[in-house]
Design brief:
It contains 22 helices and 21 strands. By secondary structure, it is of the alpha/beta class. It is globular and about 80 Å long.
């Protein structure tokens, strides 16, 4: 197939305005879509979820291994191939990739009673394990409660003797442990620490939130209370009453193992590699949406695809489909590190982390999340197209009751699913789950996630917050995307290319809004505003051309003439956008012929970083590679991580995103300046000095080396 320029333009228009009824094309035939839709079951996923929510699935605990056993048994029931468990030893010292392993935890029993002023059971591990913070140590004592406010600064303890007592605090739990327990001698903590802030935070004061202590510290325990219960205790203490608590718990922290369950649906050609479905199995009880929903939904994908393939109704794909259930981040890194042969064969990942929340109960919108700009890939467009198809069908049905099949409801045979619309969109890359690790290891991920979720990390993340209709829809979306990616051949790629090019053209056009805002930003002097605005267009063009190239790389072939014509069209489109920005710069008094980099004279600009450590992220909850290797004093000097700000830039809460991408862009070819421009277009302008400073810290930590 050879595309003429006029034909390319017409396809771009189709991509912008085409009907969603055929949005699954060109990736999947209508016949195959109908087969997948009919087989997908939200009821099956919902009933499997019922088994998981009974377990407190903290990694490296007996309850987590029980959950792994549930998934192992179901995967075997669904006749997946090579279903097995793998175990990875952990001891707080062993490393997998760059990350240090954590610890195992076993609890025999734990209760917290209020003895005075009135007897009241405040926490019981047996009935409600979320009330005991992870990695609490054994204790048996009766002690008064002391209110220390946040408890995260030494000033919170002035004039208060907390030695041997229990403190009431609402600050970061590990920080309270370090101060109250380790420094000032408190025995333990009662906490109503907030986390996962959303617009609805604080409205429901009965929520009990999941807490985590630092397992590397030798002592301390914490019980979690709702804000309402904690406020009641604060009121009693404020009136001068003595609150006497009785804590009795037996727990053990030490070496153990991470357990990972895997299984496959074999493809017809092992040389065509694999498509991976991933999730994280760990979480507190009940943990229905986070992330029981992701676990049972990729399991439902496995069930429905294997059933259709084994029955002969659906052709077996070229590529093997692999399904992985394990501990979040840590388990993924351990698995990928232990299987470099499998890692080399992984061509794409479909990751599900919270995909079943009922919008009207927990406000959960499903996001189809892009790969980072450091790993541009066509896989996001594939997933987004199927989300569009489902959303359009559900939207029509909610408006006039027509097209029930296209709505993909789960009310068949008395199912409990809603008739809600499908609230789904496409969003930019963000950190948050195991997809980061696949992306950091070079495997592009289609990340499906609910956000916000007002019950996340609480005892209210229950089964009754889950919509079986949504589970069915996401299972269909995942199955369609995974099967399409696993079945794609070089002969089919020419039919995919125009659709993907149209999406790229649309995004390039959308980038002008951002670029224009920078060009007109009165906080920037005109020459700088011009440079930053043109940089957005240049970097977006690079991303979109790389996404098209990723399709060619995926199938290993392509028509150079088709690619040249499409790339020429995108380049021409970018030139038109640049001309508009040039006119804006002229209107602001700029007279130069070309924009100049504000940092051109910086001696670090042309230095080229090279990766000397293995792939992977540098930061996760229990591990901070730079902290481990540099120490706290040096880490606090890293401007990017300390919230530095300047005339162009306020890091806000994006420091982790910048840090992830700065390191992920290191390829031995890009200069510090090129990396600065890439992350500036993705997240917002950042001074080159901050990028250079962060890379120098990474060099000191032996993550990268910088050429002179």
């Amino acid at each position: 197939m050879t595309l003429r320029p006029s034909g390319v333009a017409a396809l771009f228009c189709l991509g912008l305005s085409g009907g969603a009824v055929v949005a699954q094309q060109p990736f999947l035939s209508e016949q195959h879509w109908t087969l997948l839709q009919g087989e997908a079951s939200g009821t099956v996923a919902y009933e499997n979820l019922r088994r998981l929510v009974r377990l407190h699935r903290v990694p490296a605990t007996p309850e987590f291994d029980q959950a792994a056993g549930v998934m192992l048994g179901l995967a075997r029931d669904y006749r997946l191939t090579d279903v097995h468990e793998e175990h990875f030893p952990i001891d707080g010292r062993r490393h997998y990739g760059l990350l240090r392993s954590y610890y195992a935890w076993r609890v025999d029993h734990a209760t917290l009673w209020q003895r005075r002023p009135d007897p009241l059971l405040l926490g019981d591990w047996a009935s409600d394990p979320i009330r005991l913070a992870d990695f609490s140590h054994s204790a048996r004592l009766e002690a008064p409660l002391i209110d220390v406010g946040a408890g995260t600064q030494a000033s919170d303890y002035e004039g208060k003797n907390v030695e041997g007592k229990i403190v009431l605090a609402d600050g970061n739990l590990a920080a309270v442990q370090r101060l109250a327990v380790m420094r000032f001698g408190a025995a333990g903590i009662v906490s109503d620490m907030p986390n996962q802030t959303t617009a609805w935070s604080g409205l429901d004061q009965s929520l009990v939130r999941w807490g985590h202590l630092d397992a590397s510290l030798p002592r301390g325990f914490a019980f979690m209370l709702s804000h309402a219960a904690a406020q009641s205790l604060r009121t009693e203490l404020a009136t001068g009453q003595t609150v006497l608590l009785d804590a009795d718990l037996e727990a053990e922290i030490g070496p153990g193992q991470w357990t990972i369950v895997t299984g496959t649906i074999p493809g017809t050609d092992p040389s065509q590699n694999e498509v991976v479905f991933s999730c994280h199995l760990d979480h507190q009880r009940p943990g229905a949406n986070d992330n029981g929903s992701g676990c049972v939904t990729i399991l439902e994908v496995a069930r429905l695809l294997n059933r259709l393939i084994e029955s002969g109704r659906l052709p077996r794909p070229l590529r093997t489909l692999r399904f992985i259930w394990g501990p979040e981040i840590d388990g993924t890194v351990a698995y990928l590190t232990a299987h470099p042969d499998l890692l080399r064969r992984m061509r794409a990942d479909i990751h599900m982390d919270m995909v079943g929340g009922d919008l009207f109960k927990n406000k959960s919108v499903l996001h189809v999340t892009e790969t980072p700009w450091s790993l541009p890939s066509f896989v996001t467009d594939v997933g987004a197209s199927f989300a569009d198809r489902i959303r359009a069908g559900a939207g029509r049905y909610t408006e006039d009751g027509s097209g029930g099949d296209d709505a993909v409801l789960e009310d068949r045979a008395g199912g409990e699913g809603t008739r809600n619309g499908f609230f789904a969109d496409r969003t930019a890359f963000t950190e948050g789950s195991d997809e980061d690790d696949y992306d950091a290891f070079g495997v592009p991920s289609l990340y499906l996630r609910d956000w916000p979720d007002i019950t996340i990390h609480t005892d209210h993340d229950r089964l009754d917050q889950i919509d079986p209709t949504k589970l069915r829809r996401v299972a269909l979306l995942g199955a369609a995307a995974g099967y399409s990616l696993a079945s794609l051949t070089a002969d089919q790629a020419p039919a995919w290319l125009p659709y993907l090019a149209a999406q790229g053209a649309a995004r390039l056009a959308e980038s002008f809004t951002h670029a224009q805002a920078l060009a007109l930003d009165q906080a920037l002097i005109p020459p700088v505003a011009w440079y930053e605005s043109r940089n957005v267009i240049a970097q977006t063009l690079r991303r979109e051309t790389a996404e098209l190239a990723s399709l060619v790389d995926y199938v290993g072939a392509g028509n150079p003439a088709d690619q040249t014509i499409i790339l020429e069209s995108l380049t021409q489109q970018a030139a038109t956008l640049d001309a508009w920005l040039d006119a804006l710069a002229t209107s602001r008094g700029v007279t130069a012929a070309q924009p100049a980099a504000p940092w051109a004279a910086d001696p670090d600009a042309n230095r080229v970083p090279h990766r000397v450590a293995g792939p992977g992220r540098l930061l996760y909850q229990n591990d901070d590679v730079l902290l481990d290797r540099l120490g706290r004093e040096r880490l606090d000097q890293v401007q990017l991580l300390s919230g530095a700000q300047g005339r162009l830039f306020h890091v806000g809460e994006k420091s982790a995103l910048y840090a992830f991408e700065i390191v992920n862009f290191v390829d031995g070819k890009r200069s510090v300046a090129a990396i600065r421009d890439a992350v500036s277009a993705e997240f917002g302008p950042i001074p080159l000095a901050l990028v250079a400073d962060y890379l120098k810290a990474c060099e000191q930590a032996k993550i990268v080396s910088l050429t002179p």
